[in-house]
Write a structure and sequence with these properties.
2 copies of one chain form a homodimer.
Chain A lengths: L7 E5 L4 H12 L5 E4 L7 H6 L8 E4 L2 E4 L1 H11 L11 H25 L4 H26 L12 H6 L3 H11 L10 H12 L10 H21 L4
Parallel strand pairs in A: 1-2
Antiparallel strand pairs in A: 1-3, 3-4
Helix pairs in contact in A: 1-3, 4-5, 7-9
């Protein structure tokens, strides 16, 4: 089913890991949408009105109604455009497990990745250790859930693949910034394979930015917004 | 539909706000279950095996398969025992809004309530202000979502009512511990009404502990686990 483009809008930004989730889900369901890109470092009036509680991207606007929070958006897309491929598994237990790991990504992995981009010394070591241990747990989960296939969704990408969209590309940025290896053939071979296959998927390939572009953005963002704030901090 | 009690187990504790959610959802669906209470301050082998990632209650075990995380458990119960009353709304947009506010409770309100039980001075003032502002947002959301009826679910309790189970009784404990008013007729009349009606609901009344019992537990817990840790902290 293809919806008229003026029915579906997505407030986002090319660099936002959480926005990628919404875009991949819309692509998977072949939903046309208007992509409204926020200017980095600013918040549009539409964003402030559409997500007054968090004031964060992504926000999906469907028929004038705003839906914030990336995982909630992905579930909404799955439940609304039911004629496309299913995103969540059909079995309630499999759905619960998918929701559990998606929650883990947002609750444990993402909050480690963000401070890691600027962490130094012991703090950096501690966060890299935590992130590495978390990724090993995800490696084990992927092996179990995928039944040895490429994706969390088996042969097709699904909810957990879309949720993990927001993690691996930024882990690769952390690897480059700190010259470490977190996802490699020795410790997490299934995640390495996942990253290669997932980024080439038709619904994904125009969404995930090139690694070098993302590293460039991270350096620009740190220099412009993070480093000045740190140097004027009283601590 | 009533399931044999040995098919469904819930690892929990009478005092845990997140466990209340799972119990109310099971009661609403008339599911018989065995309630396995953890000893406070300890973790059973079954809990460690059933939720190795977080090691936290509640965990639902259905036919030997463990499901952690209270909101995931409630959704699982809704999707598994479909012949009982629906917990989530049927419309995808209403479901998204319900998921949004449930996320808000866990992301913003609960993390304020926990440190408030022991906060003092400026930190206490700051957290009380934050919590009060959050509860005003929830008051507005309740009015809008309930269409002026008693519950988030309208005339019946639903997902958001069950999610808010874990918030209001502990807000009442904070009010008693700090001699403040956070939910009252002047600022949040709909939440006051909600609290009165919700606690008397058949699926709820044997789940939520008496206020005085909960205050007693909070004082015991602070004295036994929080205060000693604070006094040996290097900060």
């Amino acid at each position: 089913m293809t919806i008229k483009s003026d029915d579906v809008k997505l407030i986002g930004g090319w660099q936002s890991a959480f926005v990628w989730r919404a875009r991949v889900a819309l692509n998977l369901k072949a939903v046309n949408f208007e992509f409204l890109e926020e200017t980095i470092g600013q918040k549009s009036q539409l964003l402030l009105e559409s997500n007054p509680v968090y004031k964060k991207i992504p926000v999906l606007i469907h028929g004038g109604k705003p839906i914030p929070e990336s995982l909630i958006i992905v579930q909404y897309i799955d439940e609304t455009w039911t004629s496309g491929p299913s995103i969540l598994p059909s079995d309630p237990y499999d759905r619960a497990i998918a929701r559990f790991w998606a929650h883990y990504f947002d609750d444990k992995l993402s909050p480690t990745i963000r401070p890691l981009s600027v962490a130094q010394g012991d703090e950096k070591k501690k966060l890299i250790k935590e992130l590495g241990e978390g990724l090993v747990l995800v490696e084990d989960a992927l092996k179990k859930i995928s039944n040895g296939k490429d994706f969390f969704g088996g042969d097709q990408i699904g909810y957990l693949d879309i949720a993990f969209s927001s993690v691996l590309p930024w882990v690769r940025v952390i690897e480059t910034l700190h010259e470490v290896k977190l996802v490699d053939e020795a410790t997490t071979p299934s995640l390495v394979n996942w990253g290669e296959k997932y980024s080439k998927h038709d619904a994904v390939k125009d969404v995930l930015p090139e690694h070098e572009k993302l590293v460039g953005f991270a350096k620009f963002f740190i220099a412009k917004f993070v480093a000045p704030a740190a140097s004027t901090s009283p601590h």
